[in-house]
């Protein structure tokens, strides 16, 4: 393949277009002798005769016409490569891999991908579900370009390996059985539920988040049942087996579920912070920056009052 010198092929194509060595040299800002030298070299490397005398001029041989038919396909492919590379450099093309925890995928990642398909169809986003700690392992080893997790498991702002962005402060509401005496209590607070049986995971970030929120309210929650799946938690609350803190982002599709009263804790205002992180230095890559911007806009759509100010749009 070394025989196919693209520069020399372009000279041959220009000769076909211009008709003479002199005109070709002028068009390419070369000397006529340099043009002849390049074409002689191309003919030698291909092992064919490319030019033949025709009076005082030269004309392309049949072999030269054959070479140029194939060369045109090469030139077209190179043009496509240039266009795609430019798109990549401008963030219009390429691939970005996102690792995200389960509830962030339908709430943030899917809307972001849908918007990018509309605005930047050449940019491909691949999604990989991963728990908080695993997401950062994937990010550190290069398996994903962007990791979405919760603040409890995110790297600290001082970690030199990552750049992090707070996407959203997701409010946490409390789910009670519909017939619970406190279900209609005005100004319900967390400490009103100190003696209730609680439902939350036996380990992991949600157990830590629930415990920390209750401890901030002045009590340690008594875990009656352990579950991490939101549909399981929702079903147990509906059955009157206990109460649970639920993130608003995760409960979007469950608000109409029967048997559960979902109450806003306006006095306590517990939140879980959703973090996006990238390897430090990579956040300036145009494609990754576009994905991050789309995620920020999806976060605004989720809870516009609970998004960091620098991500809000007028």
Short description:
The chain has about 325 residues and is of the alpha/beta class. It contains 9 helices and 11 strands. A hairpin with a 2-residue loop joins strand 1 and strand 2.
Task: Give the arrangement of secondary structure elements.
Elements (H helix, E strand, L loop, with lengths): L5 H13 L2 H8 L3 H15 L4 E4 L2 E4 L1 H28 L4 E7 L3 H16 L3 E7 L2 H10 L4 E5 L11 E16 L19 E3 L5 H12 L5 E4 L4 H9 L5 E4 L12 E4 L7 E9 L6 H17 L12
Parallel strand pairs: 3-4, 3-5, 7-8
Antiparallel strand pairs: 1-2, 5-11, 6-9, 6-10, 6-11
Helix pairs in contact: 1-2, 1-3, 1-4, 2-3, 5-9
Task: Write structural notes for this entry.
The protein is built from 9 helices and 11 strands. With 314 residues, the protein is an alpha/beta fold. The strands form 3 sheets. Strands 3, 4, 5, 6, 9, 10 and 11 form a 7-stranded mixed β-sheet that branches. The two termini are 56 Å apart. Residues 308-314 have low confidence and may be disordered.
- Strand segment count: 11
Fraction of residues in β-strands: 15-25%
Q: Which structural category do the helix and sheet elements fall into?
A: alpha/beta
List the secondary-structure elements in sequence, H or E: HHHEEHEHEHEEEHEHEEEH
Proportion of residues in helical segments: 40-55%
Distance between the termini: 56 Å
Q: pLDDT average, as an integer?
A: 87
Can you summarize the main beta sheet?
A: 7 strands, mixed
Q: Could you say which overall geometry the principal axes of the C-alpha atoms support? A: rod-shaped
In the predicted model, the low-confidence regions spanning at least 5 consecutive residues are 308-314
**What is the number of helices?**
9
Radius of gyration: 32 Å
């Amino acid at each position: 393949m070394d025989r196919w010198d693209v520069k020399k092929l372009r000279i041959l194509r220009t000769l076909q277009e211009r008709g003479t060595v002199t005109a070709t040299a002028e068009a390419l800002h070369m000397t006529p002798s340099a043009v002849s030298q390049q074409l002689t070299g191309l003919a030698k490397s291909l092992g064919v005769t490319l030019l033949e005398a025709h009076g005082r001029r030269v004309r392309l041989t049949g072999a030269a016409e054959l070479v140029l038919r194939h060369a045109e396909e090469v030139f077209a492919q190179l043009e496509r490569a240039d266009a795609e590379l430019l798109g990549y450099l401008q963030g219009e093309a390429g691939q970005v891999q996102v690792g995200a925890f389960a509830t962030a995928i339908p709430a943030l990642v899917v809307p972001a991908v849908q918007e990018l398909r509309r605005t930047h169809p050449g940019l491909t986003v691949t999604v990989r579900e991963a728990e908080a700690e695993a997401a950062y392992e994937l990010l550190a080893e290069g398996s994903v370009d962007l990791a979405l997790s919760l603040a409890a498991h995110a790297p600290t702002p001082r970690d030199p390996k990552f750049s992090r962005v707070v996407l959203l402060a997701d409010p946490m509401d409390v789910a009670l059985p519909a017939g619970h005496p406190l279900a209609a209590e005005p100004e319900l607070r967390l400490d009103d539920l100190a003696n209730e049986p609680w439902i939350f995971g036996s380990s992991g970030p949600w157990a830590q988040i629930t415990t920390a929120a209750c401890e901030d309210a002045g009590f340690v929650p008594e875990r009656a049942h352990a579950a991490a799946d939101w549909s399981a938690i929702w079903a147990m609350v509906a059955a009157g087996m206990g109460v649970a803190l639920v993130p608003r982002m995760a409960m979007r599709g469950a608000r109409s579920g029967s048997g559960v009263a979902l109450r806003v804790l306006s006095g306590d205002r517990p939140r879980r912070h959703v973090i996006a992180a990238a390897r430090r230095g990579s956040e300036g890559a145009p494609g990754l920056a576009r994905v991050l911007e789309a995620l920020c806009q999806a976060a605004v759509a989720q809870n516009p009052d609970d998004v960091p100010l620098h991500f809000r749009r007028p």
